[in-house]
Amino acid sequence: MNPEDPTARRIWMQKATAYLPEPVSIARVGWKKFLEDWDFELLEITRAILLWEGKMVTPLDEELAAYEERTGVHLPRELHRGRIPYPGNTPEGRRLAMQAAELLTQFYREDFASMKRRRPDTLVDIFSWGDIIRNSSSGRPPATDEQIRAAEQRLGATLPPSYKEFLRLTNGWVLGDIYLTWVDRIDYLRNTEYQEWMVDMAGEFVPDDPVPDERYFNYSASQDPLTDMRREYIPGALVICGEFSDVRGIVMLNPAVVDEHGEWEAWLSKGMYDGFRRYRNFAQLMESLYLREIAENRLYADEIGANWHFR
Question: Averaged over 260-283, what is the pLDDT?
Answer without folding.
Answer: 89
